[in-house]
């Protein structure tokens, strides 16, 4: 399959499958849609990286890679449907019954956001949350973009920013709405402050199970 020689990996692949699908792993029975695979690549790249196990059903059963075209579709998704293009490292493993499972590894992007082109032609940034790829919140995308644009200049904190950091030191996390109402500032101002502090790695976004909040960066 495109010069990829399968290596023995029965027990390794079963150990990965036993983890189930999670923030850094997704099962794919087959690869047929480059746009959908681009969602996964974008989501993993915008998080802390991850891997696709191709030839594995959602229930963890091994079906094996059925077509070498899967490799081409993954490459197409990474290079033509992602902006900027992403590198995907692919390794084939032979398992029982002569079946082959393909591991596609996606690294955390050095420059975020990584956008994926959807079937409507629009580019959207995705983020991996548990076992799902979701559209990244606009404020998170703005923070990533601001980080890339910042020139590393010296900064000073405003009273509103200082108050936010003190609140987080005491309460741990907050949302834009809570910060806006608590500080008696507009949504635009609250979002701008959060974007600025996230871009400077003072704050970071965390997913609480139902929504994104901001916390002090570690």
Write the layout of secondary structure elements.
Elements: E1 7-8, H1 10-18, E2 25-28, H2 34-46, E3 50-54, H3 69-80, E4 82-83, E5 88-94, E6 100-106, E7 115-117, E8 123-129, E9 132-135, H4 138-149, H5 159-171, E10 173-174, H6 176-183, H7 187-199, E11 203-207, E12 212-216
Helix pairs in contact: 2-3, 4-7, 6-7
Strand content: 15-25%
**Number of helical segments?**
7
Q: Return the domain count.
A: 2
Radius of gyration: 20 Å
Tell me the total number of β-strands: 12
What is the overall shape?
Answer: elongated
CATH topology of the largest domain: Methyltransferase, Cobalt-precorrin-4 Transmethylase, Domain 2
Percent of residues in helices: 25-40%
Protein name: ATP-binding protein
GO molecular function: ATP binding
Organism: Muribaculum gordoncarteri
Pfam family, one: SLFN_AlbA_2
Describe the protein.
With 218 residues, this protein is an alpha+beta fold. It folds into two domains: 7-134, Schlafen, AAA domain (Methyltransferase, Cobalt-precorrin-4 Transmethylase, Domain 2), CATH 3.30.950.30; 138-216, Winged helix-like DNA-binding domain superfamily/Winged helix DNA-binding domain (Arc Repressor Mutant, subunit A), CATH 1.10.10.10. It contains seven helices and twelve strands. It starts with 6 loop residues before the first strand and ends with a strand. The mean pLDDT is 92. One of its GO terms (molecular function) is ATP binding. InterPro entries: Schlafen_AlbA_2_dom (IPR007421), Schlafen_AlbA_2_dom_sf (IPR038461).
